[in-house]
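Hi, here's the filled form for the chain we discussed.

Project: internal
Contact: R.S.
Residues: 506
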Amino acid sequence: MADALAEVQRRIAKAAEAGEIDQSCAPVLETLEAYWQCDVASFSIPAHKGGRSLDEETEAILGRGPYRGDAPTHKGLDDRAASYQIVSYAYDLAADAFGADEAMFSTNGSTLSLQTAVVAATHPGERVAVARNIHKSVISGLVLSGAEPVYVDPVYDDELALSHGVTPEALRATLEAHADIKAMLALSPTLTGVACDVAGLAETCHDHGIPLIMDDAWGAEFTFHSELPPGSMQAGADLAIASFHKSLTGLMQTSIILVQGDRIDRERLHLAFDGFETTSTSALMVASMDAARRAMALHGEERLRRALTLSRSAGEEIGALPGVRLLGPELDGRPGVFARDETKLVVDVTGLGITGFQAADWLYEQRRVAPEAHDMHHLTFVITVADDDATAERLVSAMRDLAETGPELADGELPELPAVSGLVGDYVMTPREAYLGKTKRVALEDAAGEIAAEPVSPYPPGVPLLVPGQRVREGHIEFLRTGLAAGMVIKGVSDPSLEQLRVVAA
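And the returned structure, exactly as it came back:
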């Protein structure tokens, strides 16, 4: 049986060396299957050795499958020099599927992928343009790199209490005002499914001789269906990050880094990736990405067509419910909305007299239906290739029940948050200086005028209301105090209760 592994390894090595692209091949999965056929006696990590020592309770819940998938890469799927190119061939197939020159799989989530990208594309003291609605992981990447951000505001939609995309016009104005900017980092789509004009951003960046880096965490599926917004590689971005677990079928923490062209220093990118990615990569996670890529390359159009059909049908029924406002069609044509991902269903529930926090809690506690995100006004549901008629109907039924019950949950006037459009600005230090410098704690109520030394990020989606180096205003305090009282969760802070805020010490 040992020959089965050797045969698979030789076949994949031969295909890799010949530059063959066969999207029906899943090199990690196929090698994993052959590995277990060989009855290897492993005396290396992982210590569980295929789940041999599981107790009955653990095996009853988790099963043996995840442990068998968590096989060693070196002296397992490949040799210690990676001679058979099992993982690198999986990268090649992914690059081809996504239309990139190069791809890398990360098992530390898009958080690490974004940090890697920031460090690869920036140097200490250099200026980099950063969309202000970027994920908090970009801020931690800036702390690591020492680059100085020049924030570019997206379009703030105060009417709908949302932020949309950065426009090419806003980026162009920023680049003309700061000729020393070395790169641009932007987000598309937002968690609410709004995609920006990536092609316009790329053209603007390239006109100024700098690369465009896109956080596509919520848009990994875009490449694989013509009715979704264009993928960032197709739109001309130089580097893009996407999460396989958010809209494809990868396990949690699975992410891909995609690169094309010569504006990204590949050597620096590889060094950063090698420095940040775990040295104990999970074959289970990599195999799930390998499988997701194969499924999308072969069947993506068909499976995403079904997801879009389900989402459109469910959205139409939910939008007809009294007190529930479906935002999808209302977003089209608004400033900052270049295109829209219809697999994200966003509804405003304040017409029921309740907050999104109350609605999310009721749906989960009473109907065991879990939205991806909720805030003061909205619920966001993500329809994926894993959904079917039964799950879509369960969502519609639960929302129908919420529409009937919601008014009974109302307990007075709905709280109002200050508009985020009035809370940006006053960036007086770099994130690195503020975060790593001398700090102190002050009561939140006394923080106005201080300089934040930590990212204060309502979660989800994890976009900082305050970034390290930003001066705190009374409006920030009101926003956080009101939000916390209503059920908002804050990430990135040393005191999650926010009784105290970490600020720069004089």
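Let me know if anything looks off before we file it.
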